Task: inverse folding
């Protein structure tokens, strides 16, 4: 069963530059997908179209409620950390007591509870990134859209969070679209990697990640993905 189906999506911010052209793709329930591709190719735009933030796309999108963590920090400066995390629950008029308990559990797990009543200005970039990540994770939506969620973190925190994310995704039975520039991260976290290799994006070059991939296979795959990002690979439109 598919949790998301996008058919023939065409989009441009203005008439001159088309970002997506007739792009179709789907995500199966439980799938963990990464999207990789050069800077400025349109990865964030794809997520904005899926969430409805960018409205003027042509084509069809079939999906349920999504949780979205944007690339830039979107914490409101006048709300404390806990109240920022609870904002989506407030907007959707969910049970706030339950949401607060959940938020506190996640803050403790990510060692940020000491900052629950501080304001965003008191936190580092990486801490704010983890707060936005918690905000995307705590609701009940099955599909998570994460736009470079770990880009501001040091490599040790990043590796810890990658492992923690994988464990929680399977516990919570979520599906995910994860944008990253880090191919190792994409291989570690995904079942399938979608590579944007041409402009405008009209298809993805797809790579399936075998469940118990060994280091030799990983290296080979990494090379092929890099080639595809640079548009050097010879492949058929799929
Ligand atoms: N609001 C906007 N108005 C006009 N053009 C935009 C807007 N947002 C993005 N663009 C342009 O659309 C293209 C795709 O941008 P997008 O942010 O989707 O790229 P990206 O693949 O996410 O890049 P990065 O890896 O650097 O985050 C870029 O050329 C960008 O300049
Ligand atoms: Mg982006």
Result:
């Amino acid at each position: 069963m598919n949790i998301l189906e996008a058919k023939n999506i065409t989009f441009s911010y203005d008439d001159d530059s088309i970002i997506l052209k007739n792009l179709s793709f789907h995500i199966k329930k439980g799938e963990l997908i990464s999207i990789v591709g050069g800077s400025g190719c349109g990865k964030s735009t794809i997520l904005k179209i899926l969430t409805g933030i960018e409205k003027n796309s042509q084509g069809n999108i079939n999906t349920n409620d999504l949780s979205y963590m944007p690339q830039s920090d979107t914490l409101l400066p006048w709300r404390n950390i806990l109240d920022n995390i609870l904002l989506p629950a407030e907007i959707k008029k969910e049970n706030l007591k339950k949401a607060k308990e959940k938020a506190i559990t996640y803050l403790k797990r990510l060692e940020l509870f000491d900052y629950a009543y501080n304001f965003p200005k008191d936190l580092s970039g990486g801490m704010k990134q983890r707060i936005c990540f918690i905000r995307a994770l705590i609701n009940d939506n099955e599909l998570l859209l994460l736009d470079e969620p770990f880009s501001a973190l040091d490599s040790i925190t990043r590796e810890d969070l990658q492992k923690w994310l994988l464990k929680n995704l399977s516990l919570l039975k979520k599906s995910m679209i994860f944008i990253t520039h880090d191919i190792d991260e994409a291989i570690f976290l995904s079942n399938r990697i979608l590579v944007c290799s041409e402009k405008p994006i009209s298809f993805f070059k797809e790579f399936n990640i075998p469940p118990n991939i060994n280091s030799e296979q990983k290296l080979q795959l990494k090379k092929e993905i890099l080639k595809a990002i640079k548009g050097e690979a010879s492949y058929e439109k799929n």
